Amino acid sequence: PEDQVQPKHSTYLYAKPGDRLDKEVPVILDVESKRQIIVDDSLFPNAYSLSDLEWRDDGRHVVFEYNQRGHQVYRVIEIDVETGDTRAVISEEPETFFDYSNKTFRQDIDDGREIIWMSERDGWNHLYLYEGATGTVKNQITRGDWVVRGVDSVDVDERQIWFRASGMNPDHDPYFVHHYRIDFDGTGLVAFTEANGTHEVTFSPDGRFYVDQWSRVDLPPVAQLRRTDDRSLVMELERGDASALLATGWRFPEV
Q: How many other C-beta atoms are found inside a 10 Å radius of the C-beta of residue 180?
């Protein structure tokens, strides 16, 4: 503090089990008529968190994500702003736990008429294509005994998803990250990386080329330039040299 050397004591009220909690709810206001539309909260009664509200382009609907306290219900909820009625476009209700930390992905296509959604519902982290109007799954995009690590980009015009995944190569460490592309309907899977290591890919601005940098704990980094259309090698840009380090008596970790 500016007026003394010793710190000043202060207290902070932190909610504990059994305490009453403030409840966050969306509020819809019609500015011209100064009317408040009461939103039905039956689909989000016990929020741990609510995401920011997102207006649909039609101006009639608002969408947000609801994470229930306890993390066993996670929903994408749509509000009809004329009536205040709500519907669950997507509802995840696992028997165990919805892992929302760094494992959620949603992209709305054509103003929510389709939705790309990430879920562990089959025991593995995968992508699904939803019919937005009905809230039904059109198809599972990725499937298998491996996990999607993240989505890098979605090409709506070509209906393709560029993503990272682990565990698809049976002879590789299942934690190694590889880069792929797949069509919305689950066909046309393309692997952009194949070397036995964990990869980081950077595409050129026009998408024609990419740099694949990969390594392992027992292999210095390798950087290669490749063509996107056929994944062919254009040239090796750099290869790490550990000879000076090894000459000191240092040894690579054993996997």
A: 19
Average pLDDT over residues 32-45: 94
The bridge status of strand 209-216 relative to strand 198-203 is antiparallel
Q: What is the 3-state secondary structure (H, E, C) of 102-135?
A: CCCCEEEECCCCEEEEEECCCCCCEEEEEECCCC
Rounded average pLDDT over 131-156: 97
Identify residue 29 by its one-letter amino acid code.
Answer: L
Tell how far CA 219 is from the center of its chain.
29
Q: Is the dihedral of CA 65, 57, 115, 133 positive or negative?
A: positive
101's CB contacts (< 8 A; 6+ apart) are: none
- Cβ neighbours for 88, distance < 8 A, ≥ 6 positions apart: 43, 75, 76, 77, 135
Which DSSP state fits 249? Answer: T
Share of the chain above pLDDT 70, in %: 100
Number of C-alpha atoms within 13 angstroms, CB side, residue 93?
5
pLDDT tens digits, one per residue of 174-232: 999 999 999 999 999 999 999 999 999 999 999 999 999 999 999 999 999 999 999 99
Query: What distance in Å separates the CA atoms of residue 108 and residue 136, rounded to the nearest whole number?
Result: 14
Burial readout 133-158 (b: 16 or more C-beta within 10 A, e: otherwise): eeeebbeebbeeebbbbebeebeeee
Q: Which residues pair with residue 28 across a beta bridge?
A: 37
